[in-house]
Amino acid sequence: MRNPSFHRASRVVGSRPRRLRGLLFGLALLTSLSALAAPAKVTVTTGNGKLAGESDGKGGAVFLGIPFAAPPTGARRWRAPQDVAAWSGVRDATHAPSACAQNDYGWNKADAMHSSEDCLYLNLNTPNLHPSQPLPVLVWIHGGSNRAGSAADIDRIKLAHAGIVVVSVQYRLGVLGFISLPALSAEQGGHSGNYGLMDQLAALKWVHREIGRFGGDPRRVTIAGQSAGGMDVGLLTLEARDQQLFAGAWATGGTPAFGQPVRSLAQNEALGTQLEQRLHVNDLKQLRDAPLKALLAADLQLHSDAITDDSYLWLQAVVDGRVVTQSPASSLADVPATAIPYVLSSNRIELQVPGGSAKIERRLHQVFGAHYTAAAKHYGVDGQAEAVTDAASLGTLAERIGTDTDFRCAGNHVLARYAAHGAPAWRAQFSFEPSHHSAELPYLYEGTPLNAARPTVSPQAYFINFIKTGDPNGAGLPSWPRFTPATGAYVDMDAAGVHARTHLGGTICDLFDGV
Q1: Of 32, 231, 265, 491, whose CB neighbour count within 10 A is largest?
Q2: How far apart are CA 446 and CA 298, in angstroms?
Q3: How many CA atoms lie within 13 A of 354 on its CB side?
Q4: Coil, strand or helix: which one is 185?
């Protein structure tokens, strides 16, 4: 007679190898699948240490959150960016960095939720770590009124696929990036403010030193930016033109002074004094120890009588004497023919007059000065509007005047001075539908064509040519003539194609007296 206990034990013991084999197979399968799912890492050695980025499997890679300066926190708050400390081991560079500290204005909610003072990082896409020839480089400076935004605001992938190393940088914003104070000026050799611009210069110096390790050519760097980023590009083009950090500049939706009156160091120090009063502090230590939340709240309460709306507070160029040494108008007076190529583009409709319709008359007085009467007649503010072709297509009156004063005429005025002695320059207007501030970004970065019937003719094609050669023109594209003060040449891009024209904005821009 069989022993039931023996047979039960035999069945249990006999099943163990099968279960074990199944378990081991399952674990092996999971391990294999995990290996397939996990992105491959690639390591690059920089001057500060090793970085591990994410390989694209084709020789290129993405590196996120690369530090180009030490965290501007604690005692480093409101100081020039400091060098990054070297690290040992391999630093992970596969996670996006926090945006620079900023208030939530609605459109930037994601950045505001994940913002920090520890934010001086850049993101980098390279199509080839080891190219046969060094690749052209684009350094992107994000927009956001110099008070919001982050390096994550662009799609870097399509441009990288075109054979360009794409770098997007972050910089201190608002009061943390642009305020001045008498005490700060006394501490820092008679100058203070423009720390955000210093950050951008520090990032460009990092690119100059390190980009070769990522397949890029430090001699073929183009800086570009939109809105406040376009303004900052313009300021860097004028103020850093002798440092040989970049070979070309493309500013879209922003000029060096953004059509606003320039602010002196003393005027910017007065804003800093307002900040101290709002926070109820009276020395630098207290200010540097102030909670970030309190600083951001105080930023929203600062006021300047020089502009029509405080939303433009950080869009006034500040002549601090160190980073911005003179007004953009003065810097533009002596640009040599050998200056770097410079492109200015803007949309047919950008933004309304800062502060809206209620501020139209004040803005006209501010921008046109002695020509106010002629400007008021042109726009019909005096009830006698001049006939303007397709005026309805230029938006509401507030949009038309805002676009003229801050973008259209301001851009013409800048390029007329920049190109006065023969410096290479190009001007463009984008007339996409719908037309609005930042409407051009998908066309420049994602390669959206002007017309599906001709997908190769796109703003991106000109953009790529400019990054690679310093000239937007190229095979298969309609000619884009250079801007000169005499011709006022520009191209208008819309769904019907690329149209070469002259004197963007017409006679009203001849009366414009700003930068």
Answers
A1: 231
A2: 37
A3: 25
A4: helix
The secondary structure of 405-462 as a DSSP string is IIIIHHHHHHHHHHTTTT--EEEEEE--SS--TTTTHIIIII---S-TTSTT-SHHHH
Encode pLDDT of 155-190 as tens digits.
778 899 999 999 999 999 999 999 999 999 999 999
Structure tokens at 396: 């509401």
Do 342 and 418 form a contact (C-beta atoms < 8 A)?
yes
* Per-residue exposure over 241-280, b if at least 16 CB sit within 10 Å of its own CB, e if not: beeebbbbbbbbbbbbbbbbbbbbbebbbbbbebbbebbe
Question: Cα angle at 205 between 241 and 141, to 5 degrees?
Answer: 75
> Which pair of tokens denotes residue 246?
């970049």
- What length is written for the chain? 515
Per-residue b/e over 117-140, b at no fewer than 16 CB within 10 Å?
bebbbbbbbbbbbebeebbbbbbb
382 token code pair:
């005096």
What's this model's pTM, rounded to 2 decimal places? 0.92
Element (H, E) at 266: helix 265-279
The label of the residue with tokens 């459109």 reads 107
Residue range 441-488, pLDDT digits in tens: 999 998 999 988 888 889 999 999 999 999 999 999 999 999 999 999
